[in-house]
Design brief:
Elements: H1 8-14, H2 24-41, E1 52-58, H3 74-87, E2 92-97, H4 101-114, E3 118-120, H5 126-135, E4 139-144, H6 148-157, E5 171-177, E6 183-189
Parallel strand pairs: 1-4, 2-3, 2-4
Antiparallel strand pairs: 1-5, 5-6
Helix pairs in contact: 3-4, 5-6
InterPro entries: His_Pase_superF_clade-1 (IPR013078), His_PPase_superfam (IPR029033)
Protein name: Histidine phosphatase family protein
Pfam family, one: His_Phos_1
Length: 195
């Protein structure tokens, strides 16, 4: 059986030559032959496609004080701290929040543990935010509201989602976008979870 990979050292030994006196051309031919053999015998391992992950959460529970910009309730502050633990190991690269007290207070503990600065966005122009998010790399967290969070999840995933009612604070929408732009939407929940 013929050996497809040419080895000048083996050939030189067969001819009785010393292997140290091989010409440059033979060495070059050997190296080329070796690389060709390796290329055809090593298994092909494609580079794994990197996915972009966008997490969307509604702000945590707020105090019902009748104002337009209420702070978080004690339970809401507890949930915001839970988010800090949840997102601590998600390798977030960007953190967004609307410019309301309840969303900024929800994002605050996450910003503290990740070292990220909170970027504010206009909840009235979610289409522009969705385009901006698609241009970013890495994992992103967006803190929004009961009506904007499912709407933004729908814009990113292509699925129509109903708004959250006043009792739903535990939903974590997770949208993954692969290198070809295909999206997947799934859901996680924060603690305490609403049954």
């Amino acid at each position: 059986m013929n050996n497809l990979c040419y080895n000048p050292f083996r050939a030189a030994i067969r001819r009785g030559q010393k292997t140290t006196r091989l010409g440059g051309q033979r060495i070059t031919r050997y190296l080329f032959s070796l690389l060709a053999c390796l290329a055809f015998t090593l298994p092909f391992r494609p580079v794994a496609a990197s996915e972009q992950t966008i997490y969307l959460v509604r702000h945590a529970e707020k105090i019902s004080d009748g104002s337009n910009n209420p702070p978080l309730s004690p339970r809401g502050r507890q949930r915001a701290e839970w988010y800090a633990g949840y997102f601590a190991d998600k390798n977030l690269s960007t953190l967004y929040s609307t410019d309301f007290r309840r969303t900024l207070e929800t994002a605050g503990p996450v910003a503290r543990v990740t070292g990220l600065k909170v970027r504010t966005y206009d909840p009235g122009d979610l289409a522009a935010l969705a385009r901006e998010l698609r241009q970013l790399d890495g994992a992103i967290l967006v803190v929004g509201h009961s009506n904007t969070t499912p709407l933004l999840a729908g814009l990113l995933s292509g699925q129509a989602l109903p708004p959250l009612d006043e009792q739903h604070y535990d939903r974590i929408f997770i949208i993954t976008i692969d290198n070809e732009g295909a999206t997947r939407l799934h859901m996680d929940h924060s603690d305490p979870r609403r049954e």
